[in-house]
Amino acid sequence: MTKTPTTEPRQSWTFSREVNAEIRRAAATGIYDIRGGGAKRRVPHFDDLLFLGASISRYPLEGYREKCDTAVTLGTRFAKKPIELKIPITIAGMSFGSLSGPAKEALGRGASMAGTSTTTGDGGMTEEERGHSEKLVYQYLPSRYGMNLTDLRRADAIEVVVGQGAKPGGGGMLLGQKITERVAGMRDLPVGIDQRSACRHPDWTGPDDLEIKILELREITGWEKPIYVKIGGARPYYDTALAVKSGADVVVLDGMQGGTAATQDVFIEHVGQPTLACIRPAVQALQDLGLHREVQLVVSGGIRTGADVAKALALGADAVSIGTAALIALGDNDPKWEAEYNALGTTAGAYDDWHEGRDPAGITTQDPDLMKRLDPEAAGRRLRNYLNVMTLECQTIARACGKSHVHNLEPEDLCALTMEAAAMARVPLAGTDWWPGKGQF
Amino acid sequence: MQSLDMATTDLREVNATLQAQTSASNQTEWVIDNPRGAHAVAVGLDTPISVTVRGSTGYYCAGMNAGATIHVQGSVGPGVAENMMSGTVIVDGDASQYAGATGHGGLLVIRGNASSRCGISMKGIDIVVQGSVGHMSAFMAQKGTLVVLGDAGDALGDSLYEARLFVRGSVKSLGADCVEKEMRAEHLDRLADLLERAGADAKPSEFRRYGSARRLYHFNIDHADQY
């Protein structure tokens, strides 16, 4: 007897297994999903760009022989003491509280060995971080947790945080299990409660107020320290222009792939723009104001390789910043902890419940036993190695494009693999001299 | 008595001069004339000097004060004594928004009224307002004490943590998770001490105490309508 052919069971694209699982989770718990990290969805990114390299009209520089400089100075506009970095890659702000003390120490060690800066986060400045960071940027956040005059004056730069790419318009959240006695003490909160970090600053609203706030910070610190303004990738042209109008020395621009310690998944995946879409409008704003390169632009959100660094610089950034990638270099999501990730219902590479404080790698935790798993000296060396590799990769590309400084990379060195990337980066679609928005095909 | 005249001395020089004083300095009494609404006057002072400002100031007067006594003989703009660590700030007139915002310590006395969000996100500062305060005062206040001799506007103490609020007059409405609490002897003692230090003419027994119900300390979906 012949069996009648049947159709294969077909999963819906709209109602995928992942979507259905989230519906069931929401129905069971009544609360939205909270997680760490940045956007996981596929968005146009640096992978969609390619460098053209040298040709008859442009000659390359010799690798290992001809110099390709990587130094960058941040804060040249008003600050008496700009920050001089050996490489154009900085460590992004990440909070003590979300991260353990040893993890902050490791970031400081690695960044300092590579000749770059690290950044505090919500929750204040720790001795581990200050002590091991040659250059430390002190974030001035809406919560003002741990904010104090002494730390403000022993910082090398101040970063006024207006927003971040993972959640433009959102505040922070640190659940009670990570509010240990030390974390609570630094934040002036009771031990063990869920704490919220405010989404907007308590004592200023709008660019006119921000200008006065920056004046106050400069007066307190004797006009010595560069003032950065960090914005999420919401309206990059206008936000950059307003940050400059408010008196920023440096604009830090964070796209939606930039990570957070914890917020709602719906926020991370559905608010804000991809990093690639943010850079050109921000650069355009600086150029329109005649301040490109005088006000430095630092781009973050999904930077992973020296190629990403080179592409961000070619689009007009002065430097980039890494957060998630730095944590991975320290040991976050390492497959060697796979059994423990499985026990938490996840797998290495996908672990993002950083807010729960049970990180097997001992990085996003305040659990004393888990924290011991991270050796800050060894982790710092890994971060240094990774930063060095990214710098070498960036130099390799720059030399291939004939550049004696990585800042000499330019949009004309790039082409795009997709229409979307061409439109966002405003570079030609590969094989053409056209991008969407530029004349006729 | 040392004098700085802002009619002839710019802000940078005024602040740099005051910030340069050390605990070993014998120039402990300072007067600033003609502030004319300037912003960021007498900010970041970290020695126990005394500064009298003869006139009104703009934003962030006495910002991040850490030990100085600053007396403004006028009114102040937004964010007076913001993030104060220690010391005393006295305002003879009124204060605009965010007075004492995020202050970690010290005493802020406002002899007139304070506008909205007085004591927002306060972290240990004590604030005594001899007049009334505007809406959303003590929003997300974490630690410290807010004393109001007059009335409080809408949503007093919204999303309050462990700060203590005392109001002598009426409260238009309480914010999320803020409730009236029993006034015990320890609170009366605390209030008496603050009123005395602020030079305020009021009896502790005339006040009512407000604090956190602590229902929002851990996220609970059943409380979502309160957020």
Descriptive report:
The complex is a heterodimer of chains A (441) and B (227). Chain A has 441 residues and is of the alpha/beta class. Chain A has helices at residues 17-29, 101-114, 127-132, 149-154, 181-187, 206-220, 236-245, 265-270, 275-288, 306-314, 324-330, 338-343, 368-371, 376-400, 419-425, and strands spanning 34-37, 49-51, 72-74, 83-85, 89-91, 118-119, 136-140, 157-161, 172-174, 195-197, 227-232, 250-254, 260-264, 296-300, 319-322, 414-416. Chain A has a single domain (34-425), classed as Aldolase class I (TIM Barrel), CATH 3.20.20.70. An eight-stranded parallel β-sheet of chain A has the order 5-15-14-12-11-8-7-6. Chain A has a two-stranded antiparallel ribbon with strand order 1-13. In chain A, strands 2-16 form a two-stranded antiparallel ribbon. In chain A, helix 2 (101-114) runs parallel beside helix 14 (376-400), helix 9 (275-288) packs parallel to helix 15 (419-425) and helix 10 crosses helix 14 (376-400). With 227 residues, chain B is of the alpha/beta class. Chain B has an eleven-stranded mixed β-sheet, with helices on one face. The interface between A and B is large, with 34 and 42 residues.
List keywords for this structure.
heterodimer; A: 441 residues; TIM Barrel; eight-stranded parallel β-sheet; two-stranded antiparallel ribbon; 15 helices; 16 strands; 34% helix; B: 227 residues; alpha/beta; eleven-stranded mixed β-sheet; Glu_synth_asu_C (chain B); Glu_synth_lsu_3 (chain B); oxidoreductase activity (chain B); Protein glxC (chain B)
